[in-house]
Amino acid sequence: MDGKPNNSLWSSNNILKKHCTSGLHNLGNTCFMNSILQCLAHTGPLLDYCLPKNYLVDINYTGSSMKGSVIKAFANLVQHMWKNDEPVSPQELKGQIQKFSPPFTGYNQHDAQEFLHFLLEGLHNDVNRVKNKPTPLEINIDDNLNDNDKAIESWKHYLRFDNSRIVDIFVGQLKNTLKCTVCGYTSVTFDPFWDLSLPIPKSCGRVTLQECLTLFTKEETLDGEEKPTCSRCKAKRKCIKKLMVHKFPQILLLHLKRFSQCGSFRDKLHTTVEYPLGGLDMIPYATQLARGRANYNLYAVVHHSGSPFSGHYTASCCHPDTHRWYRYNDENAIAISSDEVTLSEGYVLFYELGSQSSRL
After folding, report:
1. Most buried by CB count within 10 Å: which residue of 9, 34, 163, 196?
2. Which long-range contacts link 342-345 to residues 24+ away (Cβ below 8 Å)?
């Protein structure tokens, strides 16, 4: 089933080619970066913001340490990717990212999800609408407020410090409930999220993305070193924790927790996770008062193959207008069928909020 193209800049102004076969040069162990860049280069709302250079009027020259250099380099790279059929170099953007985040200096392999966090943070800081951040204040939200009003107040507080088009696109809100097993007091807070890191159920075979989401939202007992401080008891207590989505982002980023650290040893789960290309319904994992629609369609995936120490990242991306899928492996790009998107080990999934139609 073909999804109908949105009424967007790429359709009305023919900014995007009908196919994108432009790969990215590997600068030396930079497949983690290239895979994320391909996925973001296929993110419709971000293209609408960057390709026509709408971001220029939002650059925060007072509050951003980079003065717009990260988003300028990103937008310039995406422009070249959509204009060329030959591979292009992400060198300029890499240079700006490592100035913003020194751990990415050099050519060591890094985690793709970690890189995604820092890149989105850099893009956001460059166009933050908050020019001068207020002095941090302790959040004092009236416990007598109902959950919906608490969520609204928490979101307002977040926007006092972080408010940008990047936030509009990628940030949602989680409801975090903690119940003390000693006194029974229940604490409810609402926190912003840029992505959801989902545990993978232990299995000898296949699991579904829905099973991962169910495990993420399942009640969890916090005991031992994890015990939080109960607001009523004023002491560390065994608590029951539960997470639910309250505000749906336009772009939902799902990170599958394939890697675990045990001392100096890093292990990887090779479990096959089946994820839907269209019609991911997030309502079962949301609060009853959740705001907005909850139906998502997949448009990009970062895959990881191999071991934690000698692995390789690739990306599968769907053209935001023609809905054709392509596999990107650094400089190489090939057309693939939608059935091939889920054949490799998914690591970071990019879903877009939409109607019942999907990009298949």
Report:
1. 34
2. 342/274, 342/275, 342/277, 342/301, 344/303, 344/305, 344/314, 344/316, 345/258, 345/270, 345/272, 345/273, 345/303, 345/304, 345/305
Cβ contact 209:278 at 8 Å = no
Identify which of 122, 112, 101 has the alpha carbon closest to the alpha carbon of residue 166: 122
Cβ(275)–Cβ(342) under 8 Å?
A: yes
Calpha distance 46→9 (Å, rounded): 11
199-220 confidence digits (pLDDT tens): 999 887 899 999 999 999 999 9
CA distances from 252 to 10, 180, 234, 274, 360 (A): 21, 31, 36, 17, 18
Whether the per-residue pLDDT at 144 is higher than 90: the answer is no
In the prediction, which pLDDT does 4 show?
35
Distance CA 12, CA 33 (A): 30
Q: Provide the Cα torsion 338, 342, 348, 349; round to 10°.
A: 50
φ, ψ dihedrals at 83, nearest 5°: -95, -25
Phi, psi of 265 (to 5 degrees): -100, 135
Distance in angstroms (rounded) separating the CA atoms of residues 283 and 294: 6
**Are the beta carbons of 32 and 304 closer than 8 angstroms?**
no
Residue 263 has pLDDT above 80, yes or no: no
> What stretches of the chain show up as alpha helix (H) in DSSP?
9-12, 31-40, 44-50, 69-83, 91-100, 112-126, 147-159, 165-170, 209-216
Does the structure show a pLDDT above 70 at 264?
no
Q: Say what angle helices 91-100 and 112-126 make with each other, to 10 degrees.
A: 80
Smallest Cα–Cα separation from 46: which of 13, 71, 73? 71
Output the six-digit token pair for 243: 């997470």
What are phi and psi for residue 211, nearest 5 degrees?
Answer: -65, -35
pLDDT tens digits along 82-95: 988 889 999 999 99
Which residues form the catalytic set? 31, 312
Token pair in block for residue 275: 């994820």
